[in-house]
Every structure is written in structure tokens, then in C-alpha cells.
């Protein structure tokens, strides 16, 4: 069995201490000054214009897609490619907003969409307007090559990093190639929330 997390907290000693101090001194346990600080620090670390902290991964994905529709980059009826190995919370916002999900098969070694299969599909089928990749358990394929394909073909590339913050340290520079992504934090050092979800953008 592959465990999602080894510990509830990242760096348990300092995390528990900081969280305890915050609870004892604060009255607002969500969306306060520490949350704003975290948004700004995480945006700077990723080289992004801004981040938005929300209550759940479902909400983060919904906000992400709705924002793209609000600014006219996606429209009802557009097709959105999705990793076949994904979460219901990635597919349901697509359906909810009137978009059409198309499942892309995953490579057995990476458990994710690969560049060859992705490009091969839309050479013989309708090209998706958007590709929404899920890096389950931190597994990712050649995101750099997928990003090149999407850029050349005008496909919006989105990424959901659910339950795999450690992957950030390995591929954070690749995020500069991605339009928007959703990192998910389950009980790490977030002083104002037990579970955190963010949407990020350079636009």
C-alpha cells in the first residue's frame, strides 16, 4: 500500500509549536493575516503574480475553471482533457460549468498523461481546449514536453498537485510553463488552516 502521507504535519516539532502559538494568540482561524502572508510567500517562491487560498480542492478547481470562463478563455461546450487517474473533484467542476471532460489514458510507469499519447490523441480526434493534469501521489510525466505541445497548439494547461507537496521541490520551475495550477496542502505548516488549497496564476 502507498501511503498518502507519512505524517500529519511537515516538520512536526516546529509545526505543532507554531500552530499552538497561533491558536493561543488568535481569534480568527481562517483567512486572516497569516493566510495572506502565506499566499504572498508561496507566490514569491513560485514566481507567480498571486495565489488564492480556499477551503477545499473542489473549490480550488471550480474557482480555477470559473476564472478562465470569466476572462473568456474557456466557454460552455469546450472540451477539457483530464488524466484518467484523477479525483472526482477534478471532473465535477468541468461538468458543473458546462464544459466537456475527455479522459486521457495514463502511462503505467508514471500514472499520468504522457506527451506521446496526448499528442497522438488529438492528431486523430478533436483537439481539447484545455488539459487538466492530476499528479496523483506526486507522479508526473514529461510536463515540460506536454507544456511545449500545449503552447504550440494553443491549449490551456492546468495542473492539480493533490496530496504531493514534495513534488514542488523537484519540478517547481516547470510550473512557470503552466497557465495555472492547484497545489494542495493537507495539514502542513499552515497556521490558519488544517487543510489548505490554492489556485495560482501568472495572469
Layout of strands and helices, then pairs:
Layout: H1 12-25, H2 33-46, E1 50-54, H3 57-70, E2 79-83, H4 88-96, E3 100-104, H5 115-124, E4 130-134, H6 143-153, E5 156-161, H7 166-171, E6 180-186, E7 195-201
Parallel strand pairs: 2-3, 2-4, 4-5, 5-6
Antiparallel strand pairs: 1-7, 6-7
Fold and architecture overview:
The chain has 203 residues and is α/β, with parallel strands linked by helices. It has a single domain (41-201), classed as 3-Layer(aba) Sandwich (Aspartate Aminotransferase, domain 2). 38% of the residues lie in helices and 20% in strands. The protein has helices spanning 12-25, 33-46, 57-70, 88-96, 115-124, 143-153, 166-171, and strands spanning 50-54, 79-83, 100-104, 130-134, 156-161, 180-186, 195-201. Strands 1-7-6-5-4-2-3 form a 7-stranded mixed β-sheet, with helices on both faces. Strand 4, helix 6 (143-153) and strand 5 (156-161) form a beta-alpha-beta unit. Helix 3 packs parallel to helix 4 (88-96). The longest helix is centred in the first third of the chain and has 14 residues, at 12-25. Mean pLDDT is 75; it is low at 166-178 and 186-198.
Amino acid at each position: 500500500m502507498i501511503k498518502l502521507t507519512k505524517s500529519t504535519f511537515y516538520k512536526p516539532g516546529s509545526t505543532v509549536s507554531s500552530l499552538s502559538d497561533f491558536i493561543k494568540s488568535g481569534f480568527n482561524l481562517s483567512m486572516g493575516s497569516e493566510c495572506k502572508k502565506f499566499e504572498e510567500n508561496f507566490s514569491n517562491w513560485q514566481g507567480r503574480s498571486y495565489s488564492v487560498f480556499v477551503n477545499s480542492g473542489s473549490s480550488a478547481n471550480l474557482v480555477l475553471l470559473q476564472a478562465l470562463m470569466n476572462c473568456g478563455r474557456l466557454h460552455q461546450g469546450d472540451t477539457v482533457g483530464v488524466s484518467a487517474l484523477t479525483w472526482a473533484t477534478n471532473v465535477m467542476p468541468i461538468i458543473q460549468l458546462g464544459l466537456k471532460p475527455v479522459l486521457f489514458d495514463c502511462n503505467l510507469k508514471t500514472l499520468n498523461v504522457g506527451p506521446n499519447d496526448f499528442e497522438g490523441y488529438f492528431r486523430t480526434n478533436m483537439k481539447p481546449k484545455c488539459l487538466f493534469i492530476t499528479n496523483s501521489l506526486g507522479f508526473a510525466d514529461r510536463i515540460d514536453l506536454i507544456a511545449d505541445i500545449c503552447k504550440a497548439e494553443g491549449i490551456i494547461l492546468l495542473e492539480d498537485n493533490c496530496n504531493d507537496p514534495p513534488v514542488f521541490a523537484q519540478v517547481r520551475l516547470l510550473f512557470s510553463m503552466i497557465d495555472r495550477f492547484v497545489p494542495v496542502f493537507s495539514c502542513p505548516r499552515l497556521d490558519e488552516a488544517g487543510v489548505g488549497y490554492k489556485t495560482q496564476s501568472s495572469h
